[in-house]
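To: structure desk
From: M.T.
Subject: fold request, one chain
Message: Could you run this one when you get a chance? Sequence is below, nothing fancy, just the single chain.
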Amino acid sequence: MPETVTFPALDGRMLTGTVFEAASPRVAVITFGALGVPHRYYARFGASMADHGVSVLAFDYRGVAASRDRPLPEDPATILDWGRLDCPGAVEWARRRWPNLPLAGVGHSFGGQSFGLNGRVLELDRLVVIGAGAGDFRYYPLKDRLAFSVALGATPLVSKVLGYVPGKLGLGEDLPAGVVRQWTRWCFTHGYLSGAPEVGDTHYARFTGPALFLDLPGDTYAPERPAAVLRSWFTAAKVTHRRVLAEGLPPAARGHFGAFRAGGEPIWGEIFGFVEG
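Reply: Done. Structure tokens follow.
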């Protein structure tokens, strides 16, 4: 049965997640989710992995879904807090929960970006980066740049008026204003977070273990060039890169958000094989 758990981020703020515990686990996995995507989205994946001997922790970042502990207009969270405080907190908790198991990270979208912000990334034995890219809008196909920049440009105004950013604008869950404002600034910054002054040093080049990069079919959020830029930051990793083909996947399992829906089992099988080594 899924188990609800709470644990502290590095600054003590409590986060909520779910553990899918295998009967006799051989490996443990933390899912680091996409921006605006609640951890319940990864439940089907977590349950499937547990059935195959892999225990999984999925969790919500501060200010999101089950980890929301105050009215959003009062939440000072930033996206850098997610990467620097929440993600390392999840690694620390998982290491205590499964001290004798290999521990892998599966990062979807922002979750894949978060590995370079996570000071505990070296405590992960393997990484899976799925549907993730560097978000500088200049990396995107020309036909998508105008719509991308208009949508991003509107979010600071919306957040100023409402005090938060409603998920119905296309970001999934309602989000703290500081998260979306900072992310928007990164998207307009040359090099994305690698060029943002508040980020400083990152940890991408420190990870030396195996890393699997999966590009998703029909993914307009992380198309070829942004995905390649993000992958290039992992200079010391043992990189395996594959473009997932649409053939064999139902339409609902394609695109940026399809990989963890029903029908995504072929992708999960590849992740399972990789984290098992």
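Reply (cont.): The radius of gyration is 17 Å. Let me know if you need anything else for the meeting.
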